[in-house]
Amino acid sequence: MGVTEDTGRLTTGRRRFLGLAAGAAAATQLGLSGQAHAASGGPVPAGPAPAAGATGFPRPVPGVRPFRIRVPQREITELRRRVRATRWPDRETVGDRSQGAQLGKVRPLVEYWGTRYDWRKVEARLNALPQFITEIDGLDIQFAHIRSPHAGAMPMLMTHGWPGSIIELLKIVDPLTNPTAHGGRAEDAFHLVLPTLPGYGFSGTPRSAGWNPARVATAFHRLMLRLGYGEYVSQGGDWGAIIAQIQATQRPEGLLGIHVNMPGTVPPDILRHLRNSDPAPAGLSAREKVAYDRLLHFYHDGFGYAAMMNQSPQTIGYALADSPVAMAAYYYDKIAEWTDSGGEPEKVLTYDEMLDAISLYWLTNTGPSSSRLYWEGYQAGGGPFDAFHIPDLPVAVTVFPAEIYPAPRSWGERAYGNLVHWNEVDRGGHFAAWEQPRLLAEELRTSFRSLRH
Length: 453
Hints:
Rossmann fold, 9-stranded mixed sheet, 13 strands
């Protein structure tokens, strides 16, 4: 069934996609630099060499296994076959995106996918990172761990969202870990831990209900402790923002602060009006009214994808598991809507970049399992933008103009009692690290500067 031998908790159907090299000896030789040797004796690609005095783990880390990706060629060939066999729908009857992903946009993207797209390029980029798997709370969590070459770097947990993965974070890795090569200062460097959400990519797929966002937040805190980070900061957008904010409410020992680029700030009284589809209530400032109107548009005209996954992730899962074109159209629709591109993501992302992200879901068959996180979140209550009450932990926020809603500072000040940074930038959208990596990197350096020892 493939080359994997030691991931028994992963489903048989997904084992064939994993190229893992591990063993008891390797597990005790892992360094924080990401350097390790597989049981076969071959090296696992490492990140930048740590500075003097920062080399390697101070102690062995049991249960952390090196990880590499190697998708069998037959799976790529099968993807192309399925794309060539597509039965296309007829064209939409409107001249805009109001009926969804447009045929004239999706078809050329998919035809490129089935002919010229090369998965091996992004596979090589991912394998150039030090990647690992470890079991937490009975589930395998895959992650990349990149040490900065600069002494005194701050550990940072960065969590991706949907329909994303660590692929959307690749552009920001070097600016954060090696800031001096990107116009920054050595004292602003970060060590990065980039976990893959349960049910996404190469992490394990939960086999029973209960892996809700709070459980994920706890698991990722345990991951940071396992890697030897007694203190760290947490960052994210989309699900990553929710995870970071939940961690802030859990207030685990060692969490110094968080940064989010999709803040949860909507007050309860505003939510009541939104649920009733009311016009903006009286008394809102001009800035608050803009946020309200964008939220009203989202819940009225852009929430269908989430409603489906909140209520029936298994139903949409059949299309996502069986049809690459269904998956591509479903994800492209949100990429188009949420990028700072006026509905034309090709202006800010290449075909290859979009297909890298989509292909990871397809080749791991995690369209259905990733959708279930929405169901889990829905069962737990609350919404993606509901205000999080974080009274004293330092919180930093960057608001990107094409985010689903542009959070106003007045709402942020009500939600976060210790707001250490708030900035509204002039470009970028929901996928901040993907669209504007340099800008987000500078925001993160500024946000956490006051928290460094």
